[in-house]
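FAQ: What does a multi-protein file look like?

Like this. Sequence, then tokens, then the next protein.
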Amino acid sequence: MEDFWNASTKKKDKVRYRQSRSYSPYSEFFSDWKQEKDGITTLSINAFYRFDEVMEPLFQSKVIDGEKRDWLFDVFMHYLIELEFRSGLTKTDWNVHAVMDEMENDRYGREITKLYQELSDREKYYVAHMITKQERTGASVEKYAEVLSVLLENGIVYKNKYREKTLLLYVGKRENTQDKNKIRLAEELFQPLGYDLVTFWEKHFAVLDEKQTMEIDQIELL
């Protein structure tokens, strides 16, 4: 969450952290996460979402009273935020990892989570990165085509000259469940409204003036 990161790193001596009183186990933030009063910015966060191993002993302790717990929580959070900052975690990385956590915990739906979990670590990071990019700039055919090409490695996406909102995807290998699931994930997350995708597996479709796509019995008809 970029706004949270900005608030955390500006005028750190005027920032106070507190554990959200009401929160979901699947999210770091809730709607009223930022409050300002008398020059002090108070940021509420569900620290169990990211820092469970650190915070759970603090909140389970029967020795530490509420006021001291709130003070220790603020100290811990200042240290943890600074630690992540110094370890090279940029605002973009922060957002990407937040999306990765959401993808793994059904925030985008169970089907999406299942498809997402089948990806490699590199692919998971890439998809989450593209989601954060899409949230900033909106959906586009270019992003959708890029995701398909990257996930399928050798996939090629074409625009259909005769049907404006139909994209043609050439995979270049036998139809298989793994790649079908990657295509399904890309469709659910990145396909612009109103667009359709037609997939070609082993056989290409004919492209005028491209001899390798004009061989009889080696092409699909549109």
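And here is the next protein:
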Amino acid sequence: MKPRIKICCISSTDEAKTAISYGASAIGLVARMPSGPGPIPDDLIQKIALSVPPPVGTFLLTSETSVNAIIKHHQRTNTNTIQIVDSLTNGTYKELKAALPFVKIVQVIHVIDEESVAEAIEISSLVDAILLDSGNPKLKVKELGGTGRVHNWKLSRQIREQSKCPVFLAGGLNPENVKQAIDEVEPFAIDVCSGVRTDGNLDKHKLEKFFANALRD
């Protein structure tokens, strides 16, 4: 099965249209973060999400860690999916799903070591999907995505094989390595931000090459 493709760090309705025109199944809209590229204001996230046609996923990337704060964040943006980039510290996924029954919940797991594998497998039964990235939430200034680094795909493969929900693969993907990443991990979907950009802007040439390489046999 060909992987779905999510283009992250979308910053305008024009970028959203461009990503979708190349075949993106989902777009990522980055809210306030402690570090990393691409954050945009909540009102712009809402505007972009409203411009996107229904079959396409609109992912709010939130760094909020309490269920109440995540619910309020979603109410300001109205995306169809919430991507939680840090660990929940207050409340449960069950409470979040009860409050937002029509919104998909995706939990990011930053793949660092075997502990990350165990954490991902445990959480996979509680959410709609998990997204494997290369940040490090243990740093003084947390890295919660957009690092441009590749992590250990062997660990990602272990997670994918044991996960109870679909797995998205992110972290340092680009037109040159995306085919290898797909072959090694066999994820449900792949997620790219900086790998299809030049000077911070979506690069149509890189997008075209990324999609071609990701979807070739």
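Q: Is there any per-entry metadata?
A: Some entries carry free-text notes. For the entry above: Residues 36 and 146 are 5 Å apart (CA to CA).
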